[in-house]
Write a sequence for this structure.
C-alpha cells in the first residue's frame, strides 16, 4: 500500500478488489456497467503492440473500451503481486511498456532510471484529472517533468461498529480509537510497517510522518507497544476484519473502503471514519518505462482509454474505487457514490494525507521498528 513494506502477495488491495467484482456492483445498487458495445469503431489494422505490467484484476476489457475499439484488442498483460516484485522484474530486464504502480514507489522507479517522462499534451483528459492527484511527491522531478498519470484512488481509515463504540466517537472520529484502552482485545491494526508507524505519528500530532526523527520515533515505539497489548490481531487479509466486525469480535480496525461496502451490504452497522488527524489516501496509475519495445502511440492510447469516463464508471461500480477523471463522477448514480463513501470526492481529496514512500533510510527504519514492536521489544 505505502512505504517500504508493500502489500502482501496473498491479498493485495487490487487482488481484493478483483475478488469484489459482482459483490461491489450489487452493493452499489446494481449500477449498470459501460459495455464494450459502446465503443463500436473501425477494425484494427494489426494486433496491439503493447505490454502492460499490472496488479491482478486490472486487465479487464471493461477498462479498455476505447483502446479495444481502436486497436482491436487489449495490450499483453503481465501481473505482479506487489510493487517490489514489479520493480525488480523490470530491473531484471522485463520490457514492459506501461506499468501500474502507486505514487509511493514512483520515486524508486525514477531513481532506478527506468522511466521516461509523460508528455501530458498527449494525455487527452489531463486537465480533467482531480487537481489534488497531480504532482504528488515523487511523481515529478526538479525540472517539472511528469512521470505518473493517476488512474484510481482509495482510502485507508478506521472502520468501526456504530453500535459498539462510545456514541461520542461518532462526533469526534479519530485514529486514536486504535490505541484506546477501553477497546482492549477488540481492535485490529493492519500488518504493514509504514501504515502502523505513520498512523501512530498522526495520533501523536506529527506532521512529518514520512520522515520522523529519532525522538519522534521513540514516542511512536511507545505508542505502538501499547497498541500491541490492545490489538486483537494484526491483519493481512481484509476478510479477517470483516468477519470479526460482523461477529462483534472487533469494534474498530484499520481498513480500506471496500470493507465498508461489503459489511453494509450484509446489514452490519459500520461507519468509515474521517479522522480529525486526516484520512489516508492512496493513488495508483500509469508510468512509461524506457525499456519497452512496444508502440508509444498505443501506450498513450491505452492511458487515454483508462482515463475515459467509460472506464472510470466501471472502475467505480465494479471495484468501489475512485477514478482520477472528475467527469466520471457525473456519470455515476449519486446513490452509488454515497454508498461507496465517495459522494464528495473533491472535498475528501482536499483534506487527504496522500501516501508516499519513505526514502532511505526511513524505509528500513520503519520496517525494523514495527518488526521489533511486534516481537515485543
Amino acid at each position: 500500500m505505502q512505504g517500504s513494506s508493500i502489500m502482501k502477495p496473498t491479498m493485495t488491495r487490487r487482488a481484493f478488489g478483483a475478488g469484489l467484482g459482482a459483490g461491489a456492483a450489487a452493493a452499489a445498487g446494481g449500477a449498470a456497467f459501460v459495455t464494450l458495445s459502446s465503443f463500436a469503431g473501425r477494425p484494427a489494422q494489426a494486433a496491439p503492440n503493447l505490454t502492460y505490467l499490472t496488479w491482478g484484476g486490472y486487465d479487464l476489457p471493461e477498462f479498455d473500451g476505447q483502446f479495444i475499439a481502436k486497436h482491436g484488442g487489449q495490450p499483453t498483460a503481465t501481473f505482479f503481486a506487489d510493487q517490489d516484485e514489479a520493480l525488480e522484474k523490470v530491473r531484471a530486464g522485463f520490457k514492459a511498456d506501461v506499468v501500474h504502480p502507486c505514487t509511493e514507489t514512483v520515486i524508486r522507479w525514477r531513481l532506478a532510471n527506468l522511466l521516461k517522462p509523460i508528455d501530458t499534451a498527449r494525455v487527452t483528459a489531463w486537465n480533467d484529472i482531480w487537481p489534488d492527484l497531480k504532482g504528488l511527491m515523487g511523481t515529478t522531478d526538479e525540472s517539472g517533468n511528469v512521470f505518473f498519470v493517476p488512474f484510481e484512488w482509495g482510502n485507508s481509515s478506521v472502520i468501526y461498529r456504530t453500535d459498539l463504540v462510545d456514541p461520542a466517537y461518532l462526533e469526534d472520529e479519530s485514529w486514536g480509537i486504535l490505541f484506546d484502552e477501553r477497546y482492549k482485545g477488540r481492535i485490529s491494526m493492519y500488518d504493514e510497517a509504514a501504515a502502523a508507524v505513520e498512523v501512530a505519528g498522526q495520533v501523536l500530532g506529527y506532521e512529518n510522518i514520512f520522515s520522523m526523527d529519532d525522538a519522534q520515533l521513540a514516542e511512536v515505539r511507545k505508542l505502538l507497544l501499547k497498541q500491541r497489548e490492545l490489538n486483537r490481531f494484526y491483519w493481512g487479509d481484509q476478510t479477517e476484519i470483516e468477519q470479526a466486525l460482523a461477529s462483534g469480535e472487533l469494534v474498530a480496525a484499520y481498513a480500506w473502503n471496500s470493507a465498508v461496502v461489503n459489511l453494509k451490504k450484509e446489514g452490519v452497522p459500520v461507519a468509515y471514519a474521517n479522522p480529525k488527524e486526516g484520512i489516508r489516501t492512496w493513488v495508483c496509475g500509469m508510468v512509461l518505462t524506457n525499456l519497452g519495445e512496444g508502440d508509444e502511440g498505443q501506450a498513450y492510447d491505452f492511458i487515454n482509454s483508462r482515463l475515459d469516463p467509460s472506464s472510470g464508471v466501471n472502475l467505480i461500480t465494479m471495484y468501489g474505487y475512485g477514478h482520477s477523471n472528475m467527469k466520471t463522477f457525473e456519470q455515476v448514480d449519486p446513490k452509488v457514490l454515497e454508498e461507496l463513501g465517495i459522494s464528495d470526492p473533491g472535498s475528501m481529496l482536499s483534506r487527504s494525507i496522500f501516501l508516499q514512500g519513505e526514502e532511505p533510510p526511513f524505509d528500513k527504519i520503519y520496517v525494523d521498528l514495527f518488526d521489533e514492536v511486534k516481537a515485543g521489544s
About this structure: The longest strand covers residues 149-161. The chain is about 35% helix and 15% strand. Residues 1-30 have pLDDT under 50 and may be disordered.
